[in-house]
Amino acid sequence: MGLSGRERRILAQIEQALEREDPELARRVAAINRIEAVGGLPERPYGGRARLWALTHGWVIVVAVALVVVSLLVAVLAT
Questions:
Q1: Where are the domains of the chain?
Q2: Smaller CB count within 10 Å for the chain: N or C?
Q3: Rounded distance, CA 20 to CA 22, Å?
Q4: DSSP 15-75
Q5: Are 79 and 72 in contact (CB under 8 A)?
Q6: In terms of Cα–Cα distance, which of 39, 40, 18 is closest to 30?
Q7: Which residues cross the membrane (predicted)?
Q8: CA 16, 18, 20, 10 torsion: positive or negative?
Q9: Alpha carbons 6 and 16: distance in angstroms, whole number
């Protein structure tokens, strides 16, 4: 069952108020609506590169933390 004319006008007013008050949220809601209209997620613009980037940065953080821990252990044991 579709919306009545009155309901469509109210919804349009709510959308306009949202766009004025929080444009970022309005952009995200519009993106979600596009995804639901198509029936799936859009193509990933970076393909596997985004996943590789995240994995690489994750490992860099793990190695950095390990180096800090080892450095602290060496400093404590050296004294």
A1: 1-42, 47-79
A2: N
A3: 6
A4: HHHHHHH-HHHHHHHHHHHHHHHHTSPPPPTTTTHHHHHHHHHHHHHHHHHHHHHHHHHHH
A5: no
A6: 18
A7: 52-78
A8: positive
A9: 15
DSSP 39: T
Backbone phi, then psi, for 61, in 5-degree steps?
-65, -45
- Residue 6: strand, helix, or coil: helix
- List, for residues 18-48, the tens digit of each pLDDT value: 889 988 888 888 888 888 887 765 566 666 6
Cα Rg of the chain, angstroms: 25
C-alpha 15/C-alpha 52 separation (Å) is 37
Residue with tokens 């995804």: 35
List of residues 6+ apart from 41 with CB closer than 8 A: 35
Q: Is the pTM of this model over 0.85?
A: no
Structure tokens belonging to residue 36: 């639901």
